[in-house]
Amino acid sequence: MRKVFVLFAAAAALTTAACNTVAGAGRDTQAVGSAVTEAANDAAD
């Protein structure tokens, strides 16, 4: 039973870490998109 609990806790920790990584990648992608949009608007002016 203890082995199952340890495996479950490890899986939960990895899942949480993966969610944080995906959220961070999403923020980075959004920042790049904003920078490209701003550069395009500056070039159009």
TrEMBL record:
Source domain of life is Bacteria
Cross-referenced InterPro entries: Entericidin (IPR012556)
Provide an example Pfam family for this protein: Entericidin
What is any one of the record's Gene Ontology cellular component terms? Answer: membrane
Q: Which GO terms describe its biological process?
A: response to toxic substance
Keywords in alphabetical order: Cell membrane, Lipoprotein, Membrane, Palmitate, Signal
The answer on whether this UniProt entry bears the keyword Cytoplasm reads no
The stretch of residues making up the signal peptide is 1-18
- Stated family: Belongs to the EcnA/EcnB lipoprotein family.
Quote the protein name from its UniProt record.
Entericidin EcnAB
To which species is this protein native?
Brevundimonas subvibrioides
Lineage, highest ranks first: Bacteria, Pseudomonadati, Pseudomonadota, Alphaproteobacteria, Caulobacterales
